[in-house]
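Predict both folds.
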Amino acid sequence: MRGREGGCRPVQRSVSPRRSCRLPRDDPGVRVQDRQPERRRVLRLRQLRYDCDGDALVALVEPTGPACHTGERSCFYRELGDGERLPLAHEALPALERTLRSRAAERPEGSYTVKLLDDPKLIGEKVQEEAEEVARAGRDESDERVAEEAADLLYHLSVLLASREVPQSAVMEVLNGRRG
């Protein structure tokens, strides 16, 4: 990998401490995070991948907060064209996890999620009930009903994980460890 003179310094500075560095447009140096404490945007480097030719990198990162100076989760929050920006399918569970963390912190009155978070027994019962409904739909109902019941199960399972402060990433790491 080649970069500016002296090698690709952002890559070298990213790999060792597992933090992502960037080359700002207005500054020829490398910056790990903004100098102003209230604007710090640090990304925890999860993985660096390179393409088939070895001439491009993609950094898979986990932000410690909003990654964009606007306060948005990502700098890529705008969409070309008209209409409401809907999350992509792969964004659904991370978005749900963020919503659940927000509900747990803000505790809005009348929230079903807060009711579940306050009652571990109820969460367990709901997960069991929804799992049974998915199984029943899988045997006897349409694919659409299976998807609807699976969504209910994923919501309740996500609430259970949030109540135990088990991040979804921990579950995904267990799944990845079982590959093979």
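Second protein follows, with its predicted structure tokens after the sequence.
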Amino acid sequence: MTELLIHSMSEFSDLILNVLKLANAREIVEIGAEHGGMTRLLADFCAQQNGNLIAIDPEPGPGFVAWAATHPHVRHIPQPSIEVIGELSAIDAWLIDGDHNYYTVLHELQAADALARRDGRPLLAILHDVGWPCARRDMYYAPKRIPQEYRRPHSHNAGVTPDNPGYRIDRGFRGSGNFAWALQQGGTRNGVLTAIEDFCREAETPTRRLLYAHVPAVFGLGVLFDANAPWAAAVTQAVTPYHDNPLLAKLELNRLTNYLTVLDWQDGYLARTGPACFTSVSGQPIRANIPYSRHPGLDPGSRCSLRPWFKWRPANRKAAGPRIKSGATIIFCQRPCPLPPEAYTYYSTKGRIRPINAAIRSAASLNVFTSTRLLLPRASLADSV
């Protein structure tokens, strides 16, 4: 449902391009191109300024590499940012929207600042995802690239919500395998905004002051720059109306709350409703509406205890569902299948379908996480009511 959630840095394009123009930026680096939404706007800006754009992304979206090859003033570097920043020079501005975690952002800022000081240029860094959820919680696209001392406990199945500093498995805002969340919000060395604050503390000196504007919308935009830059006053005037704007913050919270509510509706629907589908050995589907209720104390996606997840609740004893007989095999599945297969597994008792019990679950050696279709021994579908 990505079409329901605006999330791109390009949503700030008017503000970003205005800041770049005020700073007379011509040589620009973008870290994290993704599908190129902001990259295309930056490319047009650089063409107008007779400048160049360097896009750093080891795994951009489909078609990006071919598009970049057709623009002579755009250079794509398919490597992790921290590995290549030191090879660049004479950069006027940095747009940082890559891997949203403390280690990566801190070292990107440190490397960019080292280049700026070496080349005698003021620092201008524009960063995305400085608000919830990445402000105080690491997100990892490639956890193995993060040194162990910086890598927090994480999960690709974890979901996050604004009211919970912990996590929920397969619920809330999540990456569905595309990225992992740190399992805990807050603390040291955790999150993009924390990285910015720590960088400012180490980079500022008695003769150097950094200014930072925080725009609390669309996951947050940060504008970080040298206070003594010749264009600092103009940029300050441009970003001040957006800085910590309480109306924008309220609208952002409302936007996220509404989106997460839609996700919760979707997750709840998939977890609690929908017709069951039994498939016989011959492959013919036999459908039956099976009302069921979720076992208390268990979250969808978590490892199941030996107690059944669901209890059988026939609305009509005379129409309790398909009859089965022992001695063969049935396949039970439900589509879509948001829960582990054992949550949908039933067995035969006195000719009726019942939830699988602990003994059968153990004997069948069920694989909880790898299949949405499951074979059970000693039962086959005979007919349906």
